[in-house]
Structures are given as structure tokens and as C-alpha cells.
Amino acid sequence: MAVAYELRCRDCGKRFKNDPLSSCDECFSPLEVVYDMDAAKRTFTRESIAGGPASMWRYQSLLPVPEDYAAPTPAGWTPLLEAPRLAKRIGAKNLFIKNDAVCLPTLSFKDRVVSVALANAKIFGFDTVGCSSTGNLANAVAAQAVRMGFKTYILVPADLEPAKILNTQVYGATLVRVEGNYDHVNRLSSQIAERFHWGFVNVNLRPYYAEGSKTVGYEIAEQLGWRLPDNVVVPMAGGSLITKIRKAFKELVELGLVAEKQVRFFGAQATGCSPISTAVKAGSDIIEPQRPNTIARSLAIGNPADGPYAARAIRDSGGWAEDVSDVEIVSAIQELAETEGVFTETAGGVTTAVTARLYAHGRISPDDVTVSCITGNGLKTTDALAGKYEAERTIRPRMADFEEFVAQHEVRGIVVDDMVSGELVGGEYVR
User: Fold this and answer.
1) Where in the sequence is the domain holding 360, given as residue range(s)?
2) Which of 88, 121, 376, 398 has its CA 20 to 30 A from that of 12?
3) What pLDDT, on a 0 to 100 scale, did the predictor assign at position 412?
């Protein structure tokens, strides 16, 4: 059974009915979805969840959709992987990877938020939907919108990675490449949504869209055996994901599904676009916009909408934020792939490198249960690894040639294995 919900201003508390709105008309702060938690105690139980589908929709009764809503795409319910080999390299003992690099249908956590946003686009009667995107959101909207019968317009920065552009165009969406960075694209999208009365998932549908992120937190708790971790490391672009995982944990505690516990949240950004981590380090909630300059384009939002709330959530939890260079990002992509068999995009490289730095600097204890969130697949940003691997020489189809190849390869392998891995050199995490 669905639980009643409404929109409410995050700051002044003004209540709104369910409409395609994103900000308060009194104080201009963002709106969020609030639920009847007394009713949720009767319907949102471990038993009801276990009886649900193997997707994020097992948590449907605490998502902003009608009771009879049937999701056309089974997004979510991604693996929570133990990461012992990576843990050993970076000085951890209880490290887990939440792997949304395999989320359906387009291999990023954005599939979750789009599922909820487009459900509400149907409810509100939109026939055309769209988004402003740094890549993953574009892919998710294009794929799910065509499945639901929407016309789709997607706006992206002109310099977006080719793989992400292709992964949007293949679904037949109308792609609009805009000169400038994401913040320019987002401003234009806000104007388009108002002018054409279209449903833009991260503009007028944003409160509902953001609720999809909660399912990452629900899954972490359930997959840990209905307990909360000590720490969660989360990549930050607009800042919404880290606040929604925290909201999910609070809801689970309020409903009695997990024991109350102080979970520390750690935000991860690229140094070339780090407005939230800069604010956290300064002990402030004030976000100073930055001009993005990083290979981690999916995190390259210089003026993050949820930045102040993300900074506050981190500091209130006793956590911290860090940012890492492009060199560290690439090294961490390789490190995660070589140790745990997970190929992540540049955003996951950010999270992995920041996780290593947090252990190296003593901000996370080796014995803590820590979850590092990987939010996208490496097949989308293969350009980041250009020139990192040489083509192996060919051999003749003869055993002698193969034996010679193996001998040479093993000598090289010994040299590589003897190198110090995960070391902080000159302030950078390198392999």
C-alpha cells in the first residue's frame, strides 16, 4: 500500500500539494517529498520489502508514486560487494562497494532517479520530457522515456564524452548540444521547462526525481543485513545523492527497521570542480561557484543546487569531504578494476581515490564498516584511459613464442607487483 505524501519546503516548512514544482514561493528554497510516517510503519516492513521485486521498486510504498503504479523498468537492487583486495591496498578491513555501474537500464545510479521522475511526469500529464545533463542522466532519460512513450529533449554541454552522447542518441532522443558548461545548460533548461510546459526531470520534477536516490540507502542497509554502516563515501555533483542516502537511513531508523546509529558521510569531488568539498573544508554551508575543469565531467557542476544541504549533512554527521586530481582519478579507476573487477567511470575514480585518501589521512578507521558508492560504468568514459595501455605484440601460433611471451610478461608483472600501491605522493594518490 502506498503511503500518503506531499511537498514541503526544506527551510520554512510551507506545505504544497503534489504538483510539478521545485521551489518554495515564500523563501525560494527547494521542496522535498514528505511522507505520512505513521502509516508507513504499517506498510513499509522488512516482510513487505522482501516480498517485493528484485529492483528499487521493492521500496515502492515509500516512494512518491500511486499504489497501483507498475514500473516499466527494473532499475536498482545493484550488488553490494565486499572489496578485500582493494581494502588491503588502502589499509581498510571492512570495505564494501555499492556498484551502480551495473544498474539497469543504462549503467548508472541515474536510472533510479529517472524512474521516479518519469512516473510523476505521467501522473502530471506531460507528453514531452527532458533534462539538462553531464551524461548519465541524459542516457537514463532517453532510454526510459522512449519505453514510456514520451517525446524527449536532452540538453548537454557540447564537450560531453562521445560515448555518453552516443548512448543518448541511440534511443532516438532529440539531443541539444549547448556551448558552455553544465550550469549554462541547466539555466537554459529551466527556461525551456517554463516556456514549453514540459516535464524536465531535474527542474520542475526535481523533488520527485531526488527521491529515487533514497533507494541506494535502503539497499545498503538491507544488503548489510538490516544494519547501517559506519561510513559512506559518496561522489558529489549537485549534492543530492548524499543527502538522500542520509534521509533513507533516518527513515529506516524512524520506522524501526534498523538500529539507530551515527553514520558519517564523506563527500568526494574532483579538484577541478570542488565547490562542496571546499565549503566543507572551510566549515561553511556557503557554496562559492567554480568553473569546472576536470575529466570527471559527470561531477562537473560548478554551482550545485543541493550544495549547501550536502555540506551541512556531511558536517552534521561528523564526516568530511575531499577532492582529488585528474591523475588520481585515472589511477583509482585502474586500481578498482585491477583489484575488484569493477570498471567505473571517472566519477567512480573520484570516489575510490577519495576513499583511499580518507584511510591514508586517518579520517576513517581501518576496522570501520565503510561503503564506497560507485555510480557509473567505465564503458562510458574510456577516453579517460587513452594512452594508458600499449597494444601487446602479436605472436606466431607456436608454443615457443607463447613461452617466450609468458616469461617476459611475468618479469614485467614482478616489477609491477613490487611497486608501492595507493601511496600519497606530493599530495596525490598514485599507483
Assistant:
1) 80-107+213-384
2) 121
3) 66
SS3 372: strand
- 414 assigned to some structural domain: no
How many CB atoms are closer than 10 A to CB 169?
15
C-alpha cell belonging to residue 99? 556498484
Distance in angstroms between the alpha carbons of the first and the last residue of the chain:
50
Looking at 209, 225, 242, which one is the last position of a domain?
209
Backbone angles phi, psi at 2, to 5 degrees: -70, 150
Beta bridge partners of 291: none
Helices (H), 110-181: 110-123, 136-148, 162-169
Distance, CA of 11 to CA of 21 (rounded, Å): 15
Q: Can you give the pLDDT at residue 171?
A: 96
Domain boundary among the residues 184, 209, 234 is at 209
Separation of CA 397 from chain center: 46
**What is the rounded CA–CA span in Å between residue 242 and residue 260?**
18
Length of the chain, in residues: 431
Number of Cβ within 10 Å of residue 404's Cβ equals 12
Distance of CA 375 to the CA centre of its chain: 4
**Angle made by CA atoms 134, 310, 243, in degrees to the nearest 5:** 90
Q: Which three cell numbers stand for residue 130?
A: 527532458
Nearest to 155 by CA among 144, 145, 142, 146: 142
Q: Which residue has the cell 532517479?
A: 113
Residues of the chain with pLDDT under 50: 415-422, 424-426
157 pairs with which residues across the strands?
Answer: 178
**Are residues 294 and 218 part of one domain?**
yes
Contact (Cβ atoms closer than 8 angstroms) between residue 212 and residue 56 = yes
Cβ atoms of residues 139 and 119 within 8 Å = no
H/E stretch holding 6 reads strand 5-9
Is the pTM for the entire model greater than 0.70? yes
| Phi and psi at residue 266, to the nearest 5° | -120, 125
Shared-domain flag, residues 92 and 48? no
Q: How far apart are CA 241 and CA 179, in angstroms?
A: 27
pLDDT per residue as tens digits for the range 355-402: 999 999 999 999 999 999 999 999 999 999 999 988 888 999 999 999
Residues 6+ positions from 269 with CB-CB distance below 8 Å:
235, 236, 275, 276, 277, 299, 321, 322, 323, 324, 350, 354
pLDDT of residue 421: 45
CATH of the domain at 365: 3.40.50.1100
* Ramachandran angles phi, psi of 276, nearest 5°: -75, -45
Distances in whole angstroms, Cα of residue 46 to Cα of each of 121, 136, 193, 390: 29, 31, 39, 50
